[in-house]
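Q: What changes when protoporphyrin IX containing FE is included in the input?
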Amino acid sequence: MAIKSTETQWGGMAKLLHWLMALAIIGNGIFGLIMVEMPRGMGKLNAFALHKSIGLTVLALLLLRVSWRWFDRKPRDEPMPRWQSLAAHLTHGVLYLFMLALPLSGWIMNSLHGYPLQFFKLFNLPALAEKNEDLSELAETAHETLFWVLLLVVIAHAGAALVHHLFERDNTLLRMLPFARLRQRKSGDSP
Ligand code: HEM
Ligand code: HEM
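A: The predicted holo structure follows.
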């Protein structure tokens, strides 16, 4: 598998970043919902620290992904009506915004609470805002709401990919999957 994307296929790097980040974001969201229900104690503190470190990793991977996306080429869209390709591009843009807003809102909320922030016990990171208990409640609601809205957008995004795969029978999903072989277009199909 080539590391760079081609005219018809996403490259290895784009695929790796896509699936690694999808797993980290959804996994960390579910972990976040579980950890807030844990009884107070060392276990909860460790869970919070791990959640924050995974979230910061997502932020770092986003920087790498955006830089790579700028350097890499982008495969041309599979044949589809113009409204569908516009909707897909809009959804991708919205997903990028969420990938930034979710960890950043967590970082801001953490700062407003006055909690410390460490990256996997390796080094400390600065607060992004001064401690403020009133605003921290608002930031907490924003952080959680962002996750639920992201989940809805991801369901629409994954649903659209599955519809293309099962009903349009094109390569939209296959070209993002690792090690999948692309379907050959029949000569009568539109370009
Ligand atoms: C992929 C990134 C992230 C996702 C998907 C995510 C998602 C979530 C979710 C769903 C919750 C549970 C909300 C609730 O039920 O109250 C939560 C809680 C929390 N998150 Fe994140 N989060 C991410 C990144 C971060 C980061 C980077 C930080 C801090 C630097 C952070 C700090 C927190 C804290 C402190 C809580 C607990 C809030 C409370 O005390 O109720 N999160 N997160
Ligand atoms: C948190 C979860 C997810 C996020 C944030 C996300 C984000 C994105 C983004 C931004 C793109 C545009 C390509 C790029 O710039 O890398 C993309 C492409 C794609 N995603 Fe996701 N995605 C997620 C989950 C999923 C899931 C669960 C599926 C399962 C079907 C999926 C299937 C695809 C496919 C097939 C493409 C390629 C579309 C094309 O070539 O036009 N994604 N995704």
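Observations recorded in class: The first helix runs from residue 12 to 35.
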